[in-house]
Design brief:
There is one protein chain. This protein is of the alpha/beta class and 383 residues long. It is built from twelve helices and eleven strands. The strands form two sheets. Strands 7-6-8-9-10-11 form a six-stranded mixed β-sheet, with helices on both faces. A five-stranded parallel β-sheet has the order 2-1-3-4-5, with helices on both faces. α3 crosses α11, α4 packs parallel to α5 and α11 runs parallel beside α12. The longest helix is centred in the middle third of the chain and has 19 residues.
Length: 383
């Protein structure tokens, strides 16, 4: 199994655990714990809200400053071969082009240390802004300090700044994509895992035995896995096992890791991931060999993941998070910062999708708002 990282475990919120509680079970004295049915009902109420027509999504910004002309944005990808990286970076390019800005692309190919080179290339090329997705500041601290000194606007989505784990550290992002209700990435990210875990608890009547797979190279993946833990560890009839692995494991695929996990824990009845690219890299194939009875959580709902949901006969679901919206929100944040304004809430929330609810006929997950039209109107640009 991969090495386990319990980063920032103190962030578990007691209130969230109470809401996530479920299932009757026996305590250490052999007596049945009280309140299990009521707690399961609370989980089910939360799941119903997450499956509603809007989930926790809110409307995107309605107004914004008119974009300055002739700007160049350097895009840094966490790995273009991974759908979870390519989708939001492609959306950011689309948004920048809608404004009339030029873009360049640097692909780290999953080696986050290479982001340092990408940032320095952007500095040499005199880019006006840099946008990246799912690459923490710690991998490119020196280069980001140089970009800040050069006056380049640096905006990130699903990434942690250098002051996150070290409060005394320097904040090097000019801005970040923020989420519905004004949530920061850490709050919102844990919510993905909690939502996924709560749906499993609901569907399995408080008896979920989960096997979860997450990379531990970036903390964002760990945060989702911690959200799963927050939900299932508070469920007295549930169990959870998490396999953490480095992103380098993608090179050989992950099916063998999953096979080993499921062989060791034959009681598993739900298999999940911290993001979709993991599911597409061998986890779904492994789960398929176990039969169609397993409840399968595929991730955020990119085109590849949604195809699994449509074709699989066994119960399958995900938590839609609108990665393309994150790309557009990143460009909006850059535009506002260039005018001396602070980024505003994107409105991006969570919504559970299943084989018969909140799923489009084709393609990837679609959020409940036409965010592209909203941003175009806010920027004053046409189709």
């Amino acid at each position: 199994m991969g090495r386990t990282m319990r980063a920032l475990s103190g962030l578990v919120v007691v209130a969230a655990l109470i809401v996530a509680g479920c299932g009757d079970s026996e305590d250490d004295t052999g007596t049945t714990a009280s309140g299990g049915t009521a707690e399961l009902e609370q989980v089910r109420e939360r799941v119903q809200a997450l499956m509603s027509s809007k989930g926790t999504f809110e409307a995107p910004p309605e107004t914004g400053p008119k974009p300055m002309p002739d700007k160049t944005v350097a895009l840094l990808s966490c790995g273009q071969s991974l759908s979870s990286c390519a989708n939001p970076i492609g959306a950011a390019r689309e948004a920048a082009e809608a404004i009339g800005w030029k873009t360049t692309l640097f692909d780290t190919k999953g080696d986050f240390a290479a982001a340092e080179t990408g940032v320095r290339q952007a500095i040499v090329a005199r880019a006006d802004a840099i946008f990246f997705y799912y690459i923490d500041c710690s991998f490119m601290k020196g280069a980001l300090q140089a970009a800040k000194e050069a006056g380049i606007v640096v905006v990130a989505a699903e990434s942690f700044d250098c002051d996150f784990r070290e409060p005394s550290g320097e904040k090097l992002f000019a801005g970040e994509v923020t989420y519905a209700g004004g949530q920061d990435y850490n709050e919102w990210d844990h919510g993905i895992g909690r939502a996924a875990g709560q749906y499993a608890i609901d569907q399995l009547d408080g008896k979920a035995n989960a096997a979860i797979f997450a990379d531990n190279t970036g903390y964002g993946s760990v945060a989702v896995a911690e959200g799963w833990e927050q939900a299932l560890e508070a469920c007295r009839g549930c169990k959870i096992e998490i396999d953490y692995f480095p992103t380098s494991a993608f090179e050989t695929g992950l099916q063998q890791r999953s096979d080993q996990m499921l062989l060791k824990h034959p009681e598993t009845n739900v298999v999940g991931v911290s993001y979709e690219a993991i599911m597409l890299s061998g986890i779904e194939a492994s789960a398929r060999t176990q039969g169609q009875d397993l409840l399968l959580y595929i991730g955020e709902g990119g085109p590849g993941g949604m195809e699994i949901v449509r074709r699989r006969s066994g119960p399958t679901y995900g938590v839609g998070i609108a990665q393309d919206w994150e790309g557009w929100a990143g460009i909006d944040a850059i535009n506002r910062l260039m005018h001396g304004e602070e980024p505003v809430s994107s409105g991006i929330g969570h919504q559970i999708f299943t084989q018969d609810q909140n799923i489009p006929a084709e393609g990837g997950y679609r959020p409940p708002f036409d965010f592209k039209a909203a941003y175009r109107e806010a920027w004053g640009v046409g189709e």
